Amino acid sequence: MLDQQFAAQIQHIIDNKIKPLGALGQLEKVALQLALIQSQGQSQAAVQIELRKPQMLLFAGDHGIADEGVSIAPSAVTQQMVLNFLAGGAAINCFCRGNDIELTVIDCGILYPVTQAAPNLLLRRLGERTHNFAQQAAMSLEQVEQGLSNGAEIVKQRCMLGADLLMFGEMGIANTSSAAALLSALSGHEVDHCVGKGTGISAEQLSLKIKLVAQGVGRCHELPVKEVLAQVGGFEIVTMVGAFLAAEQQKTPVLVDGFIVSVAAYVATLLQPNVRDYLLFAHRSEEQGHQIVLQLLDAQPLIDLGLRLGEGTGAALAYPLVKAAAQFYNQMASFESAGVTV
After folding, report:
1. Choosing from 28, 222, 311, 336, which is the catalytic residue?
2. 336 an active-site residue?
3. % the chain with pLDDT above 90
4. How far is 52 from 314, CA to CA, in rounded Å?
5. What is the pLDDT at residue 47?
6. Full DSSP string of 196-210
């Protein structure tokens, strides 16, 4: 758990800014959490919140269940989108550029790999793609462990290079199926409450998706978390879980994106509950399963814009609010310094 020894001191700093108590609402909670995180292991409370090197890590992976027609697009689109990320043409590129967020794409196992080298591409492939989890385990336990290790190694490296805020995005046709299966299997919520329309499938496709996800979930009864990941997880999801676990070890906050990333965060908290202390939540997705996972994590997202794109776009859009929380904590006058008495 976060060391709370400076919590009262940090709250005093916030309360004595030149404003009514609580007048900056959720931004005050964000500032408190960030200041507490950055005070960990220090001899005094953080008097400045440092947010100088935000990093967006975008994890890509393909899913065998896509062959069942549970998405509007085939797996080939994952590679096409990864190429678009590398070329700078996607929504996440626009939002990262606009907010000075460094973007790195990680190939965790897409069906059609990118063959040309790119400075912002990391290859951490666990395979070509997962197996169809409606019919068999998505991956082996060895692949789960390797994915967790890969995610941890990436985060540790980024933190060594100065990253002080992380954001995770994802890309992978049919990955809402995997996320919904993980959520249902690990939380006990009914499959049809966890499965949504993803990229906008038809009612017939949704019915099929629920049926197929239920087949995978049916194999997960009372299995340990890592075995559930092996049964119904995704290469990009398991790598993100490892990244969340390492963020807690590195005492670095993560601004959590939408449904798939939130499910990865939930899984990480089941493996290490202290991960929750380092999570900020960017937005409320339109995907119905996201409402469940937000409740499970007792999360209050910063924005609600009806987003359902993925890619980390919600986190990139919420980042200016996190930066605003740091700015008021760092720069806003106190009643004493401003000479204002109430």
Report:
1. 311
2. no
3. 91
4. 20
5. 82
6. --TTT--HHHHHHHH
